[in-house]
Design brief:
three-stranded antiparallel β-sheet; 12 helices; Rossmann fold; 19% strand; globular; seven-stranded parallel β-sheet; homodimer
């Protein structure tokens, strides 16, 4: 069986690690393969190096190298390079890059500079992290460089800042007026992305940010049509619990696009292709679009086991819908 | 007063740190300024980053950040990035780059990528290391990317390898047939280089490798003519003691160009502009070209004090020749 998932960073990565754990623990599903389509709208060039935060969080989390406390970056990392860059007066300093993490960015930048596509580079990084041994293929949503920018107004009229600056430096505390995905107009889905959706047995939307993670992937030409057209059930997991994001700033993102911070409103963003929607017990009364099957259960991923249970529930919902 | 020096890496850097120490200790010379013209033939692009080993050794040594035991690289450096690059299977692994050191290369590469010249980049790095407070200006010999390659034959016919591969990986143990400076045919001296030679009160040649350090600088168009034409005495310090290099592989380099490994033969390489030649006591009988004043003294730089004494002796020889 084959599962395809559209994922952002920390929340998606933890959910998907839960999924692979669930699959490994479930004998009749143990040979299931998973293709992850990762958001690249967060990508940023820092110090001349190409950084892909969501792809890296997926690689590190699934490969066992992530900093568990942060949810991103490498475990037990050091900051010698960044300290030296600070001594050289190099900006920005608000984006923390550990030394081990920089090994990834240096290799990626070198390979991209040699003319390899982001897909090819990501496959090489996935080899280092043993993803194929876990039945996982990680694809960037597109090989075209795209960057989510945020239009804000912090007093001197509207201006656009890189998503990372808004998210990390400003902590999403300055209201976003809108999001602009620079480069998306010339983007095409990366090799394998549309087929992975069309040929999946189940498509999952992990509890990633519906606007700046899943929403960005949905903006890649062909992706939304593939979701509408696939024979597979498309099951989403709400990123909200009792009307609040479990992590990150989904509320600030939803506000910017004029959507309520409720599991019902998020499901509405996916109404044209969603077939199953998993919400927290506290949101059991969520109104879902016509044709969508709702289930509820505790959605807090406190640890690997709870993540595995949530992912298992989402997958089972998909399998149930498939049988109909 | 103004001193200009042509320098390679470790030996030159230690000599020049001795010089600035000597100047600081000598009241009537304390306001002397020093311009160093650094060899860039050793430069190499590793992992997509531009590395300038001789310039960095000069910066770190004069700025107090060098690994004293090695003579190059940063003190107390770590290797997290290189370890990660090894895990990613990135080659080469024979060139050791510490994490702090990589901060330099990342910043340099970024600034070069933004269109700044190597001179401008080097000036920014020199600011970080406080060189101007020490009266020192560091100039790359050229802003044109050049790279010394070495023609070797290790069994399958002649082939050219980068100087660093010959020097570091092969430890100069495979005979060099010749040196080729790729890019030199279109190189021009960096801003200030020729003027620094023409307008100097004394020009010094530290005990750097006469072939692959000083010899490469002499190949930059205009440099040799400037040395021939300057009014300043040009005083060299032999890199050999009793017919052997103190450090490095000067013997292998001299052999490649058909020159004996003697202080007399090295002086002969500089015969068209040299006016003073400082050799070790054990080479007191060195035959020097006509018009060159010979002096001898112990030339082993065991520590900062001995380096300061040697540099002071070279400078005093220059001042004596200037008075004539």
């Amino acid at each position: 069986m084959h599962v395809t998932a559209l994922s952002g960073g920390v929340g998606g990565a933890r959910f998907l690690r839960g999924l692979t754990t669930y699959l490994a623990r479930t004998p009749d599903l143990a040979d299931t393969t998973v293709t992850i389509i990762g958001n690249t709208g967060d990508d940023i060039t820092l110090f001349g190096l190409r950084v892909c935060p969501d792809l890296d969080t997926l690689l590190y989390t699934l490969g066992g190298g992530v900093h568990e406390g942060q949810g991103w970056g490498r475990a037990a990392d050091t900051t010698a390079v960044q300290t030296e860059l600070a001594a050289l007066g190099v900006q920005p300093q608000w984006f923390g890059l550990g030394d081990r993490d920089l090994g990834t960015h240096i290799a990626r930048s070198m390979w991209l500079g040699q003319g390899q596509s982001l897909s090819q580079v990501t496959a090489r990084l996935a080899t280092r992290w043993g993803l194929s041994e876990r039945g996982v293929t990680l694809l960037p949503m597109t090989d075209t460089p795209v960057e989510t920018h945020v239009v804000i107004d912090d007093g001197e009229g509207p201006r656009a800042v890189h998503f990372q600056e808004w998210w990390v430096r400003l902590r999403a505390a300055v209201p976003a007026q809108r999001f602009v995905v620079v480069g998306m107009e010339r983007a095409t889905a990366a090799p394998g992305v549309l087929d992975a959706i069309r040929r999946a047995d189940v498509v999952l939307l992990p509890p990633s940010n519906p606007v700046v993670s899943v929403g960005i992937i949905l903006g890649v030409p062909g992706v939304r049509d593939a979701l509408r057209g696939t024979q597979a059930p498309v099951v989403g997991v709400s990123p909200l619990v009792a009307g609040r994001p479990v992590r990150g700033h989904a509320d600030a993102c939803l506000q910017a696009i004029g959507v309520e911070t409720t599991s019902a409103a998020v499901a509405g963003l996916y109404a044209d292709f969603l077939t199953g929607w998993l919400v927290d017990d506290r949101d059991a009364d969520t109104q879902v679009p016509a044709g969508v099957t709702l289930r509820h259960r505790p959605l807090l991923m406190r640890d690997l086991d709870s993540a595995a249970e949530i992912a298992g529930e989402a997958l089972r919902l998909g399998l149930d819908l498939r049988r109909r």
